[in-house]
Amino acid sequence: MKIHNFSAGPCILPQVVFDKMAEACINFNNSGTSILEISHRRKDAVEVIDTARALVKELMNVPESHDVIFMQGGASLQFPIIASNLLKEGGKAAYMQTGKWAENAIKEAKRFGEIDVIASSKDKNYTYIPKDYTIPTDADYFHCTSNNTIFGTQMKQFPNSPVPMVCDMSSDILSRKVDVSKFGVIYAGAQKNMGPAGSTMAIVQRDLLGKTGRNIPDYLNYATHIKNESSFNTWPVIAIYGVMLNLQWLKEQGGVDAIAKINTEKANTMYTEIDRNGLFTGTANVEDRSQMNATFVLNNEELKAEFEALLKQAGVDSLTGHRDVGGYRASMYNALPLESVQVLVEVMKQLEQKFG
Amino acid sequence: MKIHNFSAGPCILPQVVFDKMAEACINFNNSGTSILEISHRRKDAVEVIDTARALVKELMNVPESHDVIFMQGGASLQFPIIASNLLKEGGKAAYMQTGKWAENAIKEAKRFGEIDVIASSKDKNYTYIPKDYTIPTDADYFHCTSNNTIFGTQMKQFPNSPVPMVCDMSSDILSRKVDVSKFGVIYAGAQKNMGPAGSTMAIVQRDLLGKTGRNIPDYLNYATHIKNESSFNTWPVIAIYGVMLNLQWLKEQGGVDAIAKINTEKANTMYTEIDRNGLFTGTANVEDRSQMNATFVLNNEELKAEFEALLKQAGVDSLTGHRDVGGYRASMYNALPLESVQVLVEVMKQLEQKFG
Ligand SMILES: Cc1ncc(COP(=O)(O)O)c(C=O)c1O
Ligand SMILES: Cc1ncc(COP(=O)(O)O)c(C=O)c1O
Ligand SMILES: [Mg+2]
Ligand SMILES: [Mg+2]
Ligand SMILES: [Mg+2]
Ligand SMILES: [Mg+2]
Questions:
Q1: Least C-beta-crowded within 10 Å: which of A16, A345, B64, B222?
Q2: Is residue B279 in contact with ligand 2, taking CB distance under 6 Å?
Q3: Does residue A7 lie in a domain region?
Q4: The CATH number of the domain where A196 resides is what?
Q5: Same structural domain, B221 and B146
Q6: Is B168 a catalytic residue?
Q7: Which of B230, B252, B274 is the endpoint of a domain?
Q8: Domain with B287 in it: what CATH number?
Q9: What angle do helix axes A255-276 and A237-252 make, rounded to 10 degrees?
C-alpha cells in the first residue's frame, strides 16, 4: 500500500533522494567505495558539499555578502550560537515569541545577555502571529521564527528591521521565495525541506561577525565554518549528500517559485476541507495559517477511533499532532505530493458521509 | 578491482553496514518507509538509538555509574563541552599534549580556565607518548588522547589518575579492552570504529556533572542528553542506524576482545614489514606505536612515484599521510581485513625487489 507520509520532521523526501543515497551506500559515483567509508576531504566528497552550498546560493538567490555553511547539532544548537555570535557583551536582543521553538531560542539567548521579548502570541496558545510590534533600534539583532511547526502558524511577511534580522526557518526553508538580503542570519535544521536529519544550514552575513567581544569556541563560531568552507572538522558525509540530492531535485522541479505554487495548492486543498467539513476545525488564526503544517482538531472526540481507522486504511501516516498540543497536524513539505493531500481530504469526506 | 581502504577516517566499515544502510534508505525494516523520512520519535527509530546505546554498554562493559549518549558536532565540539561541563569557574585542568587533536582540545579548554599542560611530546614532533608526569590532585580533571591519529602513537596504558580522567578515544574506541570505570568521560567522533560520519558518542560519569557553576547551553550540557536519552532534539537517524549496525557486527565478531586480537595481528604484520624492509622507516617511537594508524616514510623520496603506482595497481587506497606531516599512514581500523594489510605488505616487498 502506498504510504502518505505527513510526518512533521524528519519527513518525506523525494524518492530519487532515497534511491541515490541507497546506491551511494554501496558504490558512490561508481568509485568502487561506499560514501560511508570515504574521507570528507576526498575530492569527490568535497564536490558534494561544494555543490550543496552552490545550490543553496542559487535556489535562494543568496547575495555576495552572505555565506552558506553546514554544521551539525540541529536548530537547537543554533539557538545559543546565534546569541554568542551576535549578542554583544552587555548588549540586548529582541525576540518574537511565536511558539515552542521561539521559546527555546529565547531561553538559550538569555544565557548571554538581555533579551527583550517584543511580541508574543502566548496569550492565545500561539495560534497567531503578532503584527503590532516595534523592533528597538538599540538591539543587537531581532530574532523570529518564520514557521511554527507545532502550532501551524507562519509569518506571511517579514518586517523591515532596523537591526539585523535573524530567522529560524527550520520548517519552511526553500518552500517559498524569501529575500535573503533582508536577513542577517537564516538557519534551519535540515530535516524538513533541506534533506535528511543530521545537518544544519546557516546563511550568514559575514560583516556581522566578530563584534561581540566574546571568546567563542571554534565550532560555535560562524567565522570558523565560513573560513573552512564547512570543513573545519569531519562533516556528516551521507547527510550532506542527501541535502545535495534534494536540492538538485528541487532545482529540477523549477526551483523555489515552482514549488511554492504547488505548496500553495496543497495548503489550499487542505484548509478548504478543514473549513468546509463540519467535523473538523482548524486551530490557527486563518490569516496566519502555515502552508507547511496544517493543525486541526476533530470536533467530536468520539469519532477519533473511526477517523484513525480510515486514515490507516488509506495509508495516511504520521498525522498525530505534536505531543504538546494534541489534535492533528498535516505537514505538507516540498516532497509531499498533492495526491497525498487529496487522499487525506478524501478520508475526511468519508468520515463526514458516515457521521456528519 | 577490490579496493583496500586505509582511510584515516571516515573509514572502512563492514560490508553488512553498507548493505543494510542501503536497504534502509529504500525500505526500513520492511515498514514501507525510508529511514530517511521517519520521525526520530517513531517507535522503530527510538529502538535504533536504544539498541546502539545498549550495545556500547555491553561491548565496553560500561558501569552503572556512567551514561552513554549520542550527540552531533564531532570530537571537535566535545573539546569545549568537556571544559564547560567539568572545569569549575576559577578551576584548573591538566592536559597531556600528544598531537594535533590534543592541541585543539587544549586550545578550546583554555577559553574556560587555567590549563596545565603536564606532559607534552611536542619536543619530538609528537613521535612518542610521555610517561613521566604527575597529575596534580587539585585539577578538576585530567585529559588525554588515547590514540594520536595523525602521528601514529597510542597510549598502551592509562595512569591511575587522582582526579577524573577524560579521554578522547576517537580513533581507537572499541579496538581494544578499556576499563571504563577508570574514566570520568570517554568521547569519540563516530567516524572510525563506531560508524559513519555524523554522530559523536560520549560515556559520562553522571555524578561529575553540575559542579562547575557555569551557565551551559542545553545542547552543550551532558545532563541534557542523559536526561533525554539522546533525544533532546532531532538526532541523525541514518548515522545512528549505521552505528547500531556496526556495533551489531562487532558483537558478532566476538566483541572487543576478539577484534583486539585481529587488530594486534594486523599491526604486527604492518610494523614487521616497515622494520624489515630497508626502503621504509616507521616514524613513531616503537613502544608507542599505534595499532590503528601506522605512520612511516619512504627513505628514498625518488621512489615515490613508483611506490604509489604499485599501490594503485594493487587497489591500496588512502595511504597518504596527514597533510600536516606527510609520509604514509596505514589506518587499520576494526573493519579493515588482515588481507588488506597483507596486500600492502606485498607491495612494499615488490618495491624492495625492484629497488632495494
Ligand atoms: C521551527 C523549528 N525550530 C527548531 C527546531 C529544532 O530543531 P532540531 O531538532 O534540529 O534542533 C524545530 C524542530 O522541529 C523546528 O521545527
Ligand atoms: C583523536 C581525534 N580527536 C579528534 C578528532 C576530530 O574529530 P571530528 O572531526 O569529529 O571533530 C579526530 C579526527 O580525526 C581524531 O582523530
Ligand atoms: Mg512551534
Ligand atoms: Mg470545519
Ligand atoms: Mg594526532
Ligand atoms: Mg625499515
A1: B64
A2: no
A3: no
A4: 3.40.640.10
A5: yes
A6: yes
A7: B252
A8: 3.90.1150.10
A9: 80
State ipTM.
0.98
Does A261 map to a domain?
yes
- Ligand with smallest separation from the Cα of A281: 4
Contact check, Cβ <8 Å, B74/A234: yes
Query: Of B10, B75, B108, which has the smallest distance from its Cβ to A37's Cβ?
Result: B10
Annotation marks residue B207 as catalytic:
no
**Record: contact B238-A22, CB cut-off 8 A:** no
Active site residue A168: yes
Q: Residues of B with CB below 8 A from A77's CB? A: 72-73, 217, 219-220, 233
Site of grid cell 469519532: A303
- The dihedrals phi and psi of A10, each to the nearest 5 degrees, come to -50, 150
Cα torsion angle, A266, A267, A272, A275, sign: positive
Identified catalytic residue from A20, A67, A140, A192: A192
| C-alpha to C-alpha distance for A333 and A291, rounded to whole angstroms | 8
Q: How many angstroms separate the CA atoms of A175 and A155, rounded?
A: 13
Distance CA A60, CA A176 (A): 9
Same-domain pairing of B99 and B187: yes
| Domain total in chain A | 2
Give per-residue pLDDT as tens, A14-69. 999 999 999 999 999 999 999 999 999 999 999 999 999 999 999 999 999 999 99
Same domain, B120 and B204: yes
Q: What ligand 2 atom has the least distance to the C-alpha of B76?
A: 11
Last residue of a domain, one of B252, B279, B294: B252
Atom of ligand 1 nearest to the CA of B219: 11
